[in-house]
């Protein structure tokens, strides 16, 4: 993470953490600790908690040696908790926002003259009634662990979004929101292909409270630092980018909105044909009378209109664009008619890319975009831009600053082998031949003029070859490619979800290959980075190196609260056996783990232990499971390609239970599964516990009741699943657990067994029940 500009850790959320009356370990994490000791300018700058048995009003006193009585200040209730406590409804302005959204297309059709006003009035009234019912049945609230949204009249829906999965809360103000004085909040979470939570109409102050409560980022400016508080205490942002209107005009003239505007003009001509056709006919007659000059003027006028509208659209979309950094996040604000402010968590940043299209390259201009895991489909392209346009030097300097590096801007790229140039020469020759043959068939002997295309095709091929380049930096990979849009990817090695080396028959002839770098992209976010047309031997070496890097990162020990979480070694087997026997009250789970260690897929098993004072106090196992075709699929359908891992069993030594260790193991196992490129992860445990970590019922994720190899049922009600950043929708079908892991289900789900009672104890249903299975299932 960057260190030069992310040192200010004080924020509104950090301040509220210090004022809370009860511990909030999930919210007051280490990421929010101040980067320097708090100043002691004021005696009440950090309220001291009321001592046990003290006056409820906060008037209790204590005495210290050599001093008089000291008043214990009353700890105020945080405003966010007071306002957000209990179920809330949307602002009443939601009625108007929803009605305008529904009736907008009808209004356009009325203007176009294709809908009768009486029918339109009925539709508008229906939209108002529907909006009223929707508002009445829509509630939301924030509890200690999640954001909960409930809606629906006939079919009631309840969506629970755990806080730890929330990666950003975007604030949107369209014209219809500004008309009713409200804002919209969109909650994005990890692994979501769509917007997870959407609050369409909130009072701006309530919206700021919600956003601060969920991600610790108010959208309103902070007051200036006073004499009693320095800039660091204010948590001020480090502004990285601010766009000027002149830059936006250049972005509109050279950007990709030109084609979009042309398409919209074509659509409008179809929608309003009756109104436009007479005007078009008159214009055509006028310019037609001018001959070729008139035709050129008409085409030029159309292109001018397209460019003007493109500039206007770009200026409106990116007006007052600002990028700032604070609290380990990037923050963007932009928009004139539609105002947006978004957040990009640095730890979710997967890759950065610098784009230079054909119009911008001669001007030395470029755009910088980021790939962020978990963006909703359709939103990735809107929220990924961190520099709409700037000089090439500014673009790479921004990449350096975001990544905390200083070696990207001046990196020397290694060109592709000479064989890659020969491939493009052959392509140019084949394209010329195909075009010439087509013209000969169409135009006869005159088609031989198609040979003239050899020159532009050859130039295009050489340009494609010169665009190829690659470099390896410390803990990062740089890859460049592209003709019409030259794209330079800067990908941290920690972001890799998978690596693949592929070669087409034509590449194999020249000993070339493509190394694909799979990252956790949002749907519609673009293509994965790739080292195209590199020497096959180099590709193999890089494949092995990156695989070792990923494996080492997954196995690197972590120190948490004085305990060491690391990969299991052979020396731990005996201690793990004793731990499992003590936690489960029998040897079945210990034997299960041993059978999985010695199974046919041993290399894919990852075993974690938690060590304290040289003793193993907790254990979790991560093992791959199979997927078969859906039960409703026709015969002969091949099995799905998705990769699924299971975490089970989880056990914590009895004297270390109820200390959050099990929750740490679940989080670590989930991160390891994501690092290995898994699409889904499943876990066995109490539903209320696993839901805290984003697990849900397997059905909505497309996972069905599976069977073991012997046909016995292998899926129980206590198995839940979760999507991971690499999830692309392929991991769907019938789950097939390994026979030994399926045995765990039969042990866990057997009514009256000690394991069953232990799960109930962990879930809080029967505190007096003896024994502990996976006391790691106790919420942290």
From TrEMBL:
Q: Keywords in UniProt for this one?
A: Membrane, Transferase, Transmembrane, Transmembrane helix
Positions of region (Disordered): 1-78, 216-238, 747-780
Entry-linked PROSITE patterns: GNAT (PS51186)
- Name the UniProt record assigns to this protein: GNAT family N-acetyltransferase
User: Where does this protein have compositionally biased stretches of type Acidic residues?
Assistant: 229-238
Q: Pfam families of this UniProt entry?
A: Acetyltransf_1 (PF00583), bPH_2 (PF03703)
Tree of life domain = Bacteria
- According to the UniProt entry, the coiled-coil residues are none
Bilayer-crossing regions: 92-112, 118-136, 248-272, 292-319, 426-442
Asked if Lipid biosynthesis is a keyword of the record, the answer is no
**Domain N-acetyltransferase residue range list:** 563-725
Q: Which GO terms describe its molecular function?
A: acyltransferase activity, transferring groups other than amino-acyl groups
Spell out the InterPro entries in the cross-references: Acyl_CoA_acyltransferase (IPR016181), GNAT_dom (IPR000182), YdbS-like_PH (IPR005182)
Q: Is the keyword Transmembrane helix assigned to this protein? A: yes
